[in-house]
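Handover notes (outgoing to incoming on-call)

Open items:
1. Myb/SANT-like domain-containing protein: sequence verified, structure written out, both below. Nothing else pending on this one.
2. Nothing else urgent.
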Amino acid sequence: LFDKADWSNIANNAAFCELCVEKIRAGNTNNGHMTNRGYTNIAAKFEERTGLCHSKRQFKNKWDALRRMYTFWLWLNKQSGLGRSGGTVAVDDSWWKKHTKGHVEWRKLHNGPPENLAELQIMFQNIAVDGSSSCIPGGHMSKGHEGDEGDLGDGSPVTIRK
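Myb/SANT-like domain-containing protein structure tokens:
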């Protein structure tokens, strides 16, 4: 039986991110995604560190949530016309509410960068797309680079390769 995932615990998040980086460096990713072996190793080491037993699905869900948050962080930092203060954008609460609709956990970025930013950069360096590059419609796109288009709440597209 698996324990309920408590990702509000800063130590659990840090342990997960550190283990992901360890597994990335060990070659346990394929096309930017953790392999089954990687998740199995993370689960064992996570249980050693925290005493919590989580499933591959729980870890994958957390990976995906962190990837979406990191992609939003990248997008956020590329926005022009927004004030800057304390390492993040300085805008009113209504702006944050509008742009984080459906993603309450992103609102903590109002106070600064995401926790474990160095690890997130390693985890998602080649798979988080922030819209700063472009593609010519009808141009050649190699297999494996198609993605899901998302919306950050203001109509700005963000593509995350799967």
